[in-house]
Amino acid sequence: MDFRIKGLSPEPFRHLFGLSEGDLARHGVVRYLVDKNPGYPDRIEMRDAAPGETVLLLNHVCQPADTPYHASHAIFVREGAEEPYDRLNEVPEVMRARLLSLRGYDHKGIMLDADVVEGQDLEPVIERLFANRDIAYIHVHNAKRGCYSGCIDRA
């Protein structure tokens, strides 16, 4: 079963790139200088930022549906990231290397099923969730810290 994983668009974050610490704080955003890899997963390029790069920690509405499942959580975006990840049937390493929580939603934003899986075993769970034709998309979160990792769509 074909699936597509896309990173977030950089557009909503560009205005934050290069701001002073004080201006970032007024937006509720914190800048980090990356000191280890893995540890700072960028949600645009879908990769762990490299030591020496800077990332912004901010709150992101990952489930905008007007349902009880409406949700937001902290994410990292790499300052200057411009090319969103967009691959068919390919899982980025940033997901492969983590314990993940998968949540399958219908077109109305109601969660129909969920599971937890090690990233290296992701494809069988994607296939199982999408076997339910009512599941329109799957949200992926890092299971340990709960951060939004990405969205998997039917291709």
Q: What structural keywords apply?
A:
mainly beta; three-stranded antiparallel beta sheet; globular
Shape verdict = globular
Sheet with most strands: 6 strands, antiparallel
Structural class estimated from helices and strands:
mainly beta
Helix and strand pattern: EHEEEEEEHEEHEE
The chain-level mean pLDDT equals 96
Q: Distance between the terminal alpha carbons, to the nearest Å?
A: 8 Å
Q: Care to describe what's here?
A:
- This protein is mainly beta and 155 residues long.
- The protein has one domain (3-154).
- 12% of the residues lie in helices and 39% in strands.
- It contains three helices and eleven strands, in the order E-H-E-E-E-E-E-E-H-E-E-H-E-E.
- The strands form three sheets. The chain has a six-stranded antiparallel β-sheet, covered by helices on one side. Strands 2-5-6 form a three-stranded antiparallel β-sheet.
- The mean pLDDT is 96.
